[in-house]
Amino acid sequence: MRTSRTTTVALACAALAALTAGTATASTPVTNTCGGAVSDYSGLLGLDTPFTGNATGAGVDRPMTITPQVLDGTLVKTEIASGTGDSRYALGQFLLRVDITGRGQITFPAYAGEGWSENIVCATGTRVTKITGMVYVADLDDPIGFVVSRD
Q1: CA–CA dist 97, 44 (Å, integer)
Q2: d(C-alpha 64, C-alpha 97), whole Å
Q3: Residue 110 and residue 108: Cα distance in Å, rounded?
Q4: What is the DSSP secondary structure assignment for residue 137, as one 8-state letter?
């Protein structure tokens, strides 16, 4: 029996479709539960208030502020004091990652490198009110812990 090239390709495609039927699944959209949207950090209807707190570790305790710069945007100013009258900052975009549970994590610029969240807290709804994590600071080789919050 002679088959045309078109028929052979069609049969091969049908066989492949039959083998993979049922193995492809559609991804389920992630539902934001806490910090899973940019506006949870920066504000949606108005620019949100800064996160304030401290970066602490390796014998230092330094005031720290993460301030949203753009409404519903990722631009933040991260400021960490290195001593009296010596405050340093970085201005840049944070990177938002959202896990399968709808909880967010951010990585953000800092003067000496970067910082990242290890836990976020949302008091009501999805708006982030507290961030804990690690951050690189000037004059230390290793990152130190931080806690910043807002009402």
Answers
A1: 18
A2: 22
A3: 7
A4: -
88 contacts: CB under 8 Å, gap ≥ 6: 79, 80, 81, 82, 111, 112, 138
- AA letter at 59: G
- Burial class of residue 131 in the structure, from the number of CB atoms within 10 Å of its CB (0-12 exposed, 13-18 middle, 19+ buried): buried
CA dist list (Å): 128 to 65, 92, 105: 14, 19, 11
Which pLDDT belongs to residue 20?
Answer: 47
Per-residue pLDDT reduced to its tens digit, 36-56: 999 999 999 999 999 999 999
pTM assigned to the model: 0.81
Neighbours of 53 (CB within 10 A): 18
Q: Which long-range contacts (CB under 8 A, 24 or more apart) does 81-85 make?
A: 82/137, 82/138, 82/139
Tokens describing residue 2 = 């002679």
pLDDT, tens digit (0-9, with 9 covering 90-100), for 8-39: 555 555 554 554 455 546 688 999 999 999 99
